[in-house]
Known about the structure:
alpha/beta; 40% helix; single chain
Amino acid sequence: MGYPHHEQHMSTTNLNIRRIDSRQEDIHAAMAELRAKLSPGGNVVSEAGRQRTIEVFGEPLLPPQVVERICDDVRDRGVVAALDYSARIDKAQLTAESLRVPEAELAQAHASADPQLLEAVRRVAENIREFQRAILHHDVRLERPDGYLAQRYRPLDRVGICVPGGAAAYPSTVLMTAVPAQVAGVRELAVVAPPTKFGAYNADMLATCRELGITEVYRLGGARLSPRWPTESKGFGGSIRLLAPATFSWRWPNDTFLEAWISTRSPVRAKWW
């Protein structure tokens, strides 16, 4: 009642949604089955996605097999493989020199950004800083008769931030990853985003990076960044601690998962005993 247009829309749309009724089903078995399907080891891929996989790889690989193949190839061939997959998957024609977003482009994005956007970025960033300062770990030292016990926290030297950019732009991801790392004292931040209009070509995302003082932004996404990471001093091959939205996970060849996430409890400070 009261939403006739909504009801009409729903009645003419065929939604393929599984309903789990805990009153009539074994809820634990049903949930376990659902979790297995939605895990990185599952095979929940649309028909269009399956056809795309065949187009890119020449065979119908499962999602974990796709990631494993990309990781192996990038690990072996470095930036050449990364550029190849960017062309085949993202349809982006990049070179080793154009992987990194020029500082002039970051400055231009910031200069042309909507003032209301920048004001919102500053306001949100300060709110995040205030909370992160409140929960920041501090060194502890306990004096004992024959010495002392101590626990020290030191910031990581370098952190990589994975920003999605497939279906929408996410300046919020930059904020919720970069600001906690900055408060923790991380010296170097590098952002990677796919070479798409919502990713590393999105002016709002680039303006947000510039506003936060981030100068390293790379047009690279997906599993291509897992085995190797672009660096200022070492080229394409550095190692790094990854921060990304909680939904990011990549299967590694040894059948384990690289899971990186960012939250208000982000592990951007290492604990030393």
